[in-house]
Design goal:
Number of helices: 9
Order of helices and strands: HEHEHEHEHEEHEHEEHH
Radius of gyration: 19 Å
Oligomer: single chain
Largest sheet: 6 strands, parallel
Number of strands: 9
Distance between the termini: 24 Å
Strand order of the largest sheet: 6-5-4-7-8-9
Low-confidence stretches: 249-256
Helix content: 25-40%
Structural class: alpha/beta
């Protein structure tokens, strides 16, 4: 109805994806939408699984996340300390996944493991970690700061697979990986990019060691379909689609 009314008065209908469909691949809420132009994180998985049910006139544009301000986005190539950002959201295996953070803190005593829960303590979806934090290493710290600000201060990140935050971190210059503990017979979004999926702490550790000793490179060139890595900030991508000039570095988060 929204799109029909916009077209009735001669206006273009623009839509923007709030995130990704992870951990699944096909989401009925996204599979049946109608815009003239739809801004999404990356090309995957739309040609394979969505364009068949979208109107023929509908275009999608890979534009990345709108999480960072322009000012933050301009700093995405800054030199970061080798700290590890550990994103954790509500899932069935919080205890097991939190143990990964503890193991990392023991493995890398020379750096901080910054645990960033998705939900704050007052949120009903928050998981109470207090029972798990007795005698944890001193270099394991919790943070409730803005996720995007934290990305500018950590070189590596790992997230469970039910969040789009790993892809966002990659767009913002962080070498991020995804914890894949989903059953093999269940389709999982990030498995289309196996280079960043890990199932054991030792795998993640090996990736970091390889990057730091020069034996391996982070696979930036294989992640361009996961999220837009063109270097264009989403606000300017949208402005260009609207026929407006780009604005440069500004402080707004969502305004275009």
């Amino acid at each position: 109805i929204r799109t029909d009314e916009l077209r009735r008065v001669g206006t273009t209908s623009l839509g923007i994806a709030h995130g990704m469909t992870t951990p699944g691949i096909i989401d009925t809420r996204t599979r049946y939408v109608d815009y003239d132009t739809y801004f999404v994180f990356g090309r995957y998985p739309f040609p394979e699984h969505y364009t068949q049910t979208w109107p023929e006139h509908m275009r999608f544009v890979a534009s990345g996340s709108f999480g960072m301000t322009r000012e933050q986005f301009s700093q995405r190539h800054r030199v970061r300390p080798p700290d590890i950002l550990f994103f954790i959201s509500r899932l069935e295996k919080e205890r097991e996944f939190f143990q990964v953070a503890i193991d990392l803190a023991h493995t890398f005593p020379d750096r901080k493991i910054v645990v960033k829960p998705k939900y704050r303590p007052h949120n009903p979806y928050h998981f109470d970690f207090s029972s798990l934090t007795d005698n944890t290493p001193e270099n394991l710290v919790f943070s409730w700061d803005d996720s995007y600000a934290l990305m500018l201060n950590c070189r590596y990140a790992i997230s469970n697979g039910s969040s789009s935050v790993a892809a966002e971190a990659i767009q913002y210059g962080v070498m991020a990986y995804v914890w894949d503990d989903f059953p093999r017979d269940i389709p999982f979004y990030y498995r289309a990019f196996p280079e960043i999926c890990v199932e054991r702490t030792e795998q993640f550790t090996a990736h970091i060691r390889g990057v730091e000793d020069g034996t391996t490179d982070y696979p930036w060139d294989k992640l361009e379909d996961l999220i837009d890595l063109s270097g264009n900030v989403i606000y300017d991508v949208i402005r260009q689609e609207m026929g407006l000039p780009v604005r440069g570095t500004e402080l707004e988060r969502v305004a275009v």
